[in-house]
Amino acid sequence: MLTGIDHVIIGVKDLEGASALFTEQLGLTVSGGGRHPAAGTANRIIVIGDTYLELITVIAPDEAQPAMLERLAKGEGYWNFALASDAIEADCQRMRARGVPVLGPTRGELRASDGRSRSWLRADIERPDLAQRYPFLIQHDSSGEERRFRLAGWQQPPHHPLGAVRVSSVTIAVADLDEGRRRFSHIYGLEASPPYTGEADHWEALLAAFPLGNGFQSFELAAPLALASAENSLVDPLPGWEQPLPEPASLRHFLQKVGENLCRMTLEVADLQAARRYLDQHGVTYMLQEQPQAALWIHPDVTCGAAIVLHQLS
């Protein structure tokens, strides 16, 4: 079963700088990470509930996947996300039975600076690229609190001053929502919700959600509203606002620049007003909307190009 969002991958050019930015300005504390042997990459980990954010960079271009270099050349931001599986071999068998081209599962490993390591099994759709449009499946060598302990660098995951409690959803930008709903449902064997608008987040988008097994997470597809795309076809993106924030034509511009790709993440915080005060105190730019529900969009210039939305924990 696909139980939830295992982790969200954010590609950065300066790993230490990004780690400091997320920890000191955004209040999302980095606590683990290491190098991927023979993969040409290094990462830092931010554990949020049962999900983690992976800040990743290329440290050996000759060893890294070409897709990583190509994606990073377009700018920092989301690369992909992984879906947690509690039985990855069985999930792969079911996908193959539907005619889905699955690669793996294959074993991966990360080594910390102190020599300790953790491993996982991973299965990819179509091609084994970390930076691609389809989320991959993963099953770790540990689970529950032990998994969180290892992810955080073999220590208890730290408190986040921003008040982040969990990742509630991630969103993939697509050009055609109906086609995307059919395609992703076929690949992952999940049922899509009926389409709904992005009005709740003040976003000119049409979306559909795929609920996951844990009951509180989902991944979404988002397509530009046809009318909004037509009305804003001549609108140039504002400098620094090319990610899919709730600006007119922003989702269309994202698709033109990056293509079908993960475009935003929604975090739930314990106290949205306290989170707002924290961001104010640290000079972080954001957009806040109060109606029809409170949603705070953090400017991607201070998130390494990754659009992050904050909601009050429900």
From TrEMBL:
Which species is listed as the source? Thermogemmatispora tikiterensis
Q: Which SUPFAM superfamilies match?
A: Glyoxalase/Bleomycin resistance protein/Dihydroxybiphenyl dioxygenase
Pfam families, from UniProt?
A: Glyoxalase_3 (PF13468)
Matching entries from PANTHER family are given as: BLL2707 PROTEIN, GLYOXALASE-LIKE DOMAIN-CONTAINING PROTEIN
Where do the VOC domain residues begin and end?
4-133
The record's annotation in InterPro entries points to: Glyas_Bleomycin-R_OHBP_Dase (IPR029068), Glyoxalase-like_dom (IPR025870), VOC_core (IPR037523)
Q: Can you name this protein?
A: VOC domain-containing protein
